């Protein structure tokens, strides 16, 4: 049972009074009763001494007990205070650890740490600031406290630059020194002058700042504010330092985890997407097609697959490099993506190939409509580095389940349809038909046979005369490639030349053609049968590959003919993506004295600026404009315009496909320089043309 301390003191005092009075009266009575009067003085003195000694002993005993109790009480209070501080410390650390484990966002963690500091450390406000990435100002990102603290935070500016007054306070110093900084008398410290007014209004008297760091670098500071001077004890400082250190480790762990997740997401993304275009890759699209087929198999509906090839895109890579090609490929992908609607998927299938999956269609009309949209969208060129690149798509369309019942067959048949579109003139689309498969098999077999045709001696050069139509004089011949297959017989150049271009065999065949033509030209020149050049068609692949000029030098040297005796013919489409490397190659040819001509003029490139930029010597009017002369008014106007333009540019003009005297007469009338066609002679082997050169027969076949 507990007794009130004041009542205990009263009881002790009353007991003392009672005992003292009993001693006084009892001892006096005993002296009078027991001893004679003459002893009374001595006995009274002895009695007093005894009383003093006894009461002194009692007082000593009482004071020692009080002192002991006081000491034990103080020790108990200290123990209780320490225990409370330990509980607060553990509670604060526990709350902080819980927040660190639960939170994945560092800014939410910062806010919770500020709340923990305010709650467990008994302070008015705590805030966390981070240094600007490219500056020196400290930006508050989290805080907790009362309304005055919130107001204070809006008033102040803090810097990490010690040269500025705003950088010499506790936060700035903690960032600079990476140590805890205390301003126990904040309102009297001269280094805190920039914040004195706001601190007085808010009632802050002591401030401490604790650096936040990870990986050896300071990322910010935790600032803590109290109302009492000297508030921050060693225990409070130790607690907040522990919290600050834990926050640094937690932020580091969060950033590692964030980077790990980012890398995993990147790996997963790259596993499913094309790196250059950002589209789905081949394997992911195959999964999408399988899923669409599974869904359509369940509901009995159809799906459409478009196989898109960008015509002549390989030439862009060869002419401008793969960096430019990749950028244009990305632009093409973005253009395709812009045309997609709901239920559609787009992927990059190969180098210049794309697939579009329409998950649900009612027939072929939806696929045809999208293919038309795609073709129309590419009527506008792709722009990069102030250059315009015209790219045309060839598209094949296959439908599930009409054309195929699995993803592999659907992709294959859509590709077959695309190849048919390409053979049909490019920049068009075709729906798959069963008959197309036999065409593909035929082309594959033809390509396989073409690969060894040159070594087997199956490739020949035939020659067609070119005449000056003013005086009907032989001024040159064109070398034309022919293939005599041992089983198929003569294969049309229109059939095997595109195969050679697509397969890359055109480089080997083209180089052989130049060497063979130069050797034949040397023979004719040595006999005096030909004074003009021999013309040979060259492909873009030959020119772009590099080293073409040196290769021609070697051929001319072996053939022992001069450079003007060789004329290289290029189609207009070769200038569609005119590049610096192509211009340099043509300039190199021109410096050597080679003649350069544009074949099939008027059917390809619409920008005529290349005529004045490139060192050309001759234009060859395409036979499609000559065929209906002179009756077709439009062809007549086009032909006359081409001749007039060429003459104005100081270029010679040759018309191909001249077959009638009426055509010849019209060409002579408008000032065309040269002609080539069946009227003057069909392409023929070298020995047959040599015999005709030696004869006195005129060059008109009907003479």
Radius of gyration, in Å, reads 51 Å
The structural domain count equals: 4
Beta strands, count: 22
Oligomer: single chain
Query: Main β-sheet: number of strands, strand sense, barrel status?
Result: 8 strands, mixed, barrel
CATH architecture of the largest domain: Alpha-Beta Barrel
Structural class: alpha/beta
State the name of the first-level CATH class of the largest domain: Alpha Beta
The number of helical runs is 23
EC number: 3.1.4.52
Domain EAL: 443-697
Transmembrane segments: 12-35, 41-63
InterPro entries: Biofilm_reg_signaling, EAL_dom, EAL_sf, GAF, GAF-like_dom_sf, GGDEF_dom, Nucleotide_cyclase, Rev_trsase/Diguanyl_cyclase
Features:
cyclic-guanylate-specific phosphodiesterase, Beta-Lactamase, 20% strand, Alpha-Beta Plaits, 22 strands, alpha/beta, 52% helix, 23 helices, 703 residues, eight-stranded mixed beta barrel, Rev_trsase/Diguanyl_cyclase, five-stranded antiparallel beta sheet, membrane, Nucleotide_cyclase, cyclic-guanylate-specific phosphodiesterase activity
How does this model look, in words?
The protein is of the alpha/beta class and 703 residues long. Helices cover 52% and strands 20% of the residues. The chain folds into four domains: 5-82, no CATH class; 103-260, Beta-Lactamase, CATH 3.30.450; 282-433, Reverse transcriptase/Diguanylate cyclase domain (Alpha-Beta Plaits, 2-Layer Sandwich); 448-694, EAL domain (TIM Barrel). It starts with a helix and ends in a 9-residue tail after the last helix.
């Amino acid at each position: 049972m507990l007794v009130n301390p004041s009542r205990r003191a009263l009881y002790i005092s009353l007991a003392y009074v009672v005992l003292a009075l009993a001693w006084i009266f009892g001892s006096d009575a005993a002296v009078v009763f027991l001893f004679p009067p003459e002893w009374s003085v001595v006995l009274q003195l002895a009695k007093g001494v005894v009383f003093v000694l006894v009461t002194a002993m009692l007082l000593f005993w009482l004071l020692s007990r009080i002192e002991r109790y006081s000491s034990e009480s103080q020790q108990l209070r200290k123990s209780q205070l320490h225990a409370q501080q330990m509980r607060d410390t553990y509670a604060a650390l526990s709350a902080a650890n819980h927040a660190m484990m639960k939170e994945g966002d560092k800014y939410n963690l910062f806010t919770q740490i500020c709340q923990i500091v305010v709650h467990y450390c008994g302070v008015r406000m705590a805030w966390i600031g981070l240094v600007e990435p490219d500056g020196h100002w400290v930006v508050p990102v989290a805080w907790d406290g009362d309304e005055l603290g919130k107001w204070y935070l809006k008033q102040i500016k803090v810097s990490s630059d010690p040269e500025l007054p705003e950088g010499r306070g506790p936060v700035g110093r903690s960032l600079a020194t990476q140590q805890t900084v205390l301003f126990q008398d904040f309102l009297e410290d001269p280094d805190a002058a920039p914040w004195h007014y706001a601190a007085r209004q808010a009632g802050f008297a002591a401030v401490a700042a604790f650096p936040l760091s990870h990986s050896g670098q300071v990322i910010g500071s935790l600032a803590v504010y109290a109302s009492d001077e000297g508030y921050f004890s060693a225990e409070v400082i130790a607690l907040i330092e522990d919290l600050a250190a834990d926050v640094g480790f937690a932020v580091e762990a969060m950033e590692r985890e964030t980077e790990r997740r980012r890398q995993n997401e990147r790996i997963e993304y790259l596993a499913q997407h094309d790196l250059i275009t950002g589209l789905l890759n081949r394997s992911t699209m195959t999964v999408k097609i399988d899923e669409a087929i599974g869904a359509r198999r369940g509901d009995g509906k159809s799906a459409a697959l478009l196989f898109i090839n960008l015509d002549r895109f390989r030439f862009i890579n060869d002419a401008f490099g793969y960096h430019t090609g990749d950028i244009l490929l990305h632009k093409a992908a973005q253009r395709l993506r812009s045309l997609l609607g709901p239920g559609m998927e787009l992927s990059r299938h190969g180098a210049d190939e794309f697939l579009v999956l329409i998950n649900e269609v009612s027939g072929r009309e939806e696929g045809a409509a999208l293919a038309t949209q795609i073709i129309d969208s590419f009527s506008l060129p792709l722009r990069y580095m102030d250059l315009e690149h015209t790219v045309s798509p060839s598209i094949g369309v296959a439908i599930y389940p009409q054309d195929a019942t699995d993803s592999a067959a659907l992709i294959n048949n859509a590709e077959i349809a695309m190849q048919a579109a390409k053979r049909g003139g490019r920049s068009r689309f075709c729906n798959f038909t069963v008959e197309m498969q036999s065409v593909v098999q035929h082309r594959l077999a033809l390509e396989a046979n073409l690969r060894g045709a040159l070594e087997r001696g199956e490739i020949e050069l035939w020659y067609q005369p070119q005449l000056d139509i003013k005086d009907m004089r032989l001024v040159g011949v064109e070398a034309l490639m022919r293939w005599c297959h041992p089983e198929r017989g003569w294969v049309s150049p229109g059939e095997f030349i595109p195969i050679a271009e697509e397969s890359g065999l055109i480089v080997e065949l083209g180089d052989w053609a130049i060497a063979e033509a130069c050797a034949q030209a040397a023979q004719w020149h040595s006999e005096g049968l030909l004074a003009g050049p021999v013309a040979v068609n060259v492909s873009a692949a030959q020119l772009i590959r590099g080293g073409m000029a040196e290769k021609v030098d070697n051929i001319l040297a072996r053939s022992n003919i001069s450079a003007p005796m060789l004329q290289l013919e290029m189609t207009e489409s070769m200038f569609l993506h005119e590049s610096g490397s192509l211009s340099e190659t043509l300039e190199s040819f021109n410096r050597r004295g080679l003649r350069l001509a544009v074949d099939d003029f008027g059917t390809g490139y619409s920008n005529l600026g290349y005529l004045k930029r490139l060192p050309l010597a001759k234009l060859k009017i395409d036979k499609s404009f000559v065929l209906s002369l002179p009756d077709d008014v439009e062809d007549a106007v086009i032909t006359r315009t081409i001749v007039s333009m060429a003459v104005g540019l100081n270029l010679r003009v040759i018309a191909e496909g001249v077959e009638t005297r009426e055509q010849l007469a019209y060409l002579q009338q408008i000032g065309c320089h040269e002609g080539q066609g069946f009227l003057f002679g069909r392409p023929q082997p070298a020995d047959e043309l040599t015999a005709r050169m030696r004869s006195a027969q005129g060059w008109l076949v009907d003479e």
